[in-house]
Design brief:
It is a single chain. An eleven-stranded mixed β-sheet has the order 11-5-4-3-1-2-16-17-13-14-15. A four-stranded parallel β-sheet has the order 7-6-8-9. The relative contact order is 0.09. The protein is an alpha/beta fold.
């Protein structure tokens, strides 16, 4: 059995499950017994940087040296510091690392040959369409794939004998709105349009094309190209010239590298995807004819209905979670919802301060301590509800059933404070329902509110305990005696049941204090209190009424017991 860790950051609020599917299906095709531990973060969705730190804290959970291989995907990560931190961390481990779409010294690479493919796009525009002026509409400047496409852009210009100037490239994000902004800014600048806008991906290209139309420009007369072959490119009007990104083979290609390393045979070099350049309408070429528009529209309609149903289901779940007043009930309802889809198990681990809901709780912001963690909930389709004395016991259980299994980890955190994690076993529902983040967010919101509620309850109980108890002896005090004994006495009287009330004091206590000191007197009172409390009849209550005076309340007609006690 080989253990693989997959560290991947989702696109906004979505989980990228195609890597998981590729690894799990590839393991069957390659005859490998693999257990995949998928550490999923969504650190690019929230505008709250502390929340995003709480997401990325999950990357410190796994002991990466305990795995046979690590797959690393930071293609969606927009935090350069986090990327650099993870690269340093992975470079320090003694296991092979395969990086998706991001070349790093010492790592194996799986992804597109971005420079070669982007050069194909440029050569097509230069030689087939006679373009002489180019603008690179790029993504984040630090992003590896964007950098490689920009390098291809610069090299092609050099080969064409076209000098590079500052107004020939723009950097932003990889989203639709970036394309909108590029086209709007260009229009406002009053500069003439280039022969072609070469976009770093299809999202940018779609935003740029749509805005160009609004502003009165005509595509493909005003040419635009994309990259990645998203649905936005294939079904856009005009159909966008793009480059294929065969994501389905990424997981399998990573496995082929590992297999070659594990067995000492085969090719353990970088794996480039078998991707192709796809000329289409936005550059002046004909429609590819590869898409079925009617089926696509049908699927959009079906997908829209399904999304509405999912949103309604999540809203109902949120309401049901809000009604849970115990951790176990909360996690049980969450688990029931998850396992109603294609998922084989849910395990929840929390730190001890979360479980105890301590008023002075201190949550880590970095790192995990298994000795400070407890299993709050465990349920799977094989064995139903489970109980584990420790997280180590849970890990051993998971390893006993981990053949061809995927365990997906999700962080539990209050902003940047780590409170635990959830483990989903074989969450196949994510392929059709990648919006796990919405479900997880509903759980996090209620968990934090429930923790605060429990802290308040515990604080109130502590204050009540201080109010009702004698600080020296730990017995109930005079206030508690008045609040408790009078109602109990009245209740017994109404039932025509007797009781015994014993009044005691310490003989010559003032003389003892005066002779031996108040500290000695305090110790004497504590000893008397302990003996009275330890020897009291079952169901009785002992009170320090004041000074050296004590009261013992013995409910029921037990006079013989009371006399023996006295």
């Amino acid at each position: 059995m080989k253990k693989i860790a997959l560290l991947a950051d989702g696109w906004r609020r979505y989980v990228i499950y195609s890597w998981v599917e590729g690894i799990m299906e590839g393991s069957k095709e390659l005859g490998l017994d693999v257990c995949l531990y998928f550490y999923n973060t969504n650190g690019t969705w929230s505008q709250d940087s502390k929340f995003n730190k709480g997401e990325y804290a999950l990357n410190d959970l796994p002991d990466l040296n305990s795995f046979d291989g690590v797959v690393f995907d930071c293609t969606n990560t927009t935090n350069l510091d986090e990327i650099q931190y993870m690269v340093r961390k992975l470079q320090s481990v003694n296991v092979p690392v395969v990086s998706i779409g991001y070349k790093v010294d010492g790592f194996y690479y799986v992804g597109n040959d971005d420079k070669r493919l982007f050069r194909k796009v440029m050569d097509h525009m230069y030689y087939a369409h006679g373009c002489k002026s180019f603008v690179f509409a790029g993504g984040p400047p630090y992003h590896y794939e964007n950098r490689m496409r920009f390098e291809a852009f610069k090299e092609a210009l050099s080969d064409y004998g076209i000098p590079l100037t500052a107004d020939m490239y723009m950097f932003g994000d990889f989203d639709y709105q970036t394309g909108v902004r590029y086209m709007s800014d260009w229009h406002e600048s009053k500069k003439p349009l280039p022969d072609v806008f070469l976009c770093a991906n299809d999202n940018i290209a779609a935003g740029l094309c749509a805005t160009a139309e609004v502003l009165g420009y005509k595509v493909p007369q005003d040419k635009v190209t994309g990259f990645d072959n998203l649905d936005k490119a294939a079904y856009f009007n005009p159909q966008i010239t793009t480059v294929d990104h065969n994501r389905g083979n990424i997981g399998r290609n990573a496995l082929e590298i590992f297999k070659a390393l594990w067995n000492g045979t085969g090719d353990a070099s970088d794996k480039y995807l078998d991707s192709e350049f796809i000329p289409a309408e936005s550059c002046g070429c004909p429609n590819t004819g590869r898409v079925d528009y009617r089926n696509y529209i049908k699927n959009i309609i079906k997908g829209s209905v399904a999304r509405e149903q999912e949103e309604d289901a999540v809203m109902i779940l949120q309401k049901e979670l809000e009604e849970c007043n115990e951790y176990y009930d909360l996690f049980e309802r969450y688990s029931d919802y998850i396992q109603s889809m294609k998922c084989d198990g849910v395990y929840v681990v929390g730190v001890s301060d979360l479980a105890a809901a301590r008023n002075n709780a201190h949550f880590r912001k970095h790192g995990y301590d298994i000795d400070d963690e407890v299993v709050l909930y465990a349920d799977d389709k094989d064995n139903g509800k489970l109980e584990f004395k420790s997280v180590n016991d849970l890990m051993q259980y998971m390893q006993s059933v981990d053949k061809n299994t995927c365990y997906m980890y999700c962080s539990l955190h209050f902003r940047d404070e780590i409170v635990g994690y959830v483990i989903l076993r074989n969450p196949e529902f994510l392929y059709d329902h990648p919006e796990q983040f919405d479900i997880q967010s509903a759980l996090l919101k209620r968990l934090e509110n429930l923790f605060k509620q429990k802290v308040l309850e515990n604080t109130n109980n502590e204050l009540k305990n201080l109010y009702n108890h004698d600080a020296l002896t730990g017995l109930y005090n005079r206030v508690a005696c008045n609040e408790m004994v009078i109602p109990m006495f009245a209740e017994l009287e109404a039932q025509n049941v007797g009781c015994t009330i014993v009044f005691l004091d310490v003989d010559d206590f003032k003389d003892i204090n005066d002779t031996y000191g108040h500290q000695y007197g305090d110790e004497l009172l504590k000893t008397v209190a302990r003996v009275l409390d330890e020897q009291k009849p079952e169901g009785s209550m002992v009170y320090r009424f004041g000074g050296d005076e004590f009261i013992v309340f013995i409910p029921g007609d037990r006079h013989d017991t009371a006399e023996k006690y006295i």
